[in-house]
Fold this protein.
Amino acid sequence: MSQLNRRQALRLFAAAGAAGLTAPILSACSNSDESGAGSVPDGPPIKLGMIVPQTGMYKDFGNELDNGFGLYLQLRGNKLGGRDVTLVKVDEGETADSGKAAAEKLIKEEKVLALTGVVNPQSMLALKDTVESAQIPLVGSNASPSALQGPKYIWRTSYVASEPSAAIARWAAENAGGSVAVVGQASPTGDDEEIRTFVETFRGAGGTIAGQARTTPFGSKDFGSALATVKQSGATAMFAMYSGATAIEFVKQYRAARFPGNFKVFAPGSLTEGYVLKQQGDAARDIYTALNYSPDLDNAANRRFVADYQKAFGSVPSAYAMASYDAAAVLDKAISDATRNLDSFSLNAAIGRLGQIDSPRGGWQFTQTRTPLQRWYLRQVRNDGAVLSNVLTAELTTQG
């Protein structure tokens, strides 16, 4: 798709939102009277569990998930579906074992109605059997590995891990201006699905890969050799798959390597999303990313969300915070719908009946795989007023 200027894109999204799917809508409004929950009678209090990293390498992601979910609760007087909520938070840590232990504590000791959160993909895979055997719904708001197959009680409001790579690959094939070098952080499990998906989709769309895809060791922050290889490859652009602290350091080293001025960088949104962009600063300028959210999307739900988030936290919301906000919205409506006989089983069934959700990202709904069918957007790091931001450039595709 050719690049649109921002004003044209905003008009496009406004029109697309009005012509969206016609399934029942879950409203994500700041006013609880419009949320779908304000019209039901109050019921007994409920207890929910949140699994988020409070320590370790994923702590910053955990903070954003905590912010998004907490904001939704705050705006609705700490009620979901007309019920007062006790939210019990347990540290996910940074390993699969610590994530599984968090789920077991919340299910067996705290006896929660439902779960939310989960940042680490390995945690999600490790706790699957615990959640499924307990028949406690988990509305996950970040981790969604492709290897998670066939869950009945695990829903995700984020996206399948390979989807950003597929979304940016098709656009990159048309806009690279030559061959593309591929680099990324090796997965701790050895399954580099994001990199593999980009290469396969990019080639399928007619793109040319320069040399072999190169991975750097998990957790490594030395990218000098990889960047030198990219420079020597003759590529006119690069696909880069990094997130968190490694994304910060990779982007800084990329800028210090002084690539030609017309060299392009394509990436999943995690390369420049949320707190990492603040630390990357001007080094991230002009990088293109694909994600399911941009804070300058022009729809009513997003305008309210951004204003409320900035008021509460003094910063622009990330896609991570938005997905957690939506997880609270999913539980809000589902608890309301299941309120006459509310238990974990009826709540899970109610989630399956939700239909379209009116979200800051635009309307979306769960598919049979319990992940969102949603729009994907192209963003470019540049100034939005006086602030360096991921600025909306075009709508890429719908997938899920």
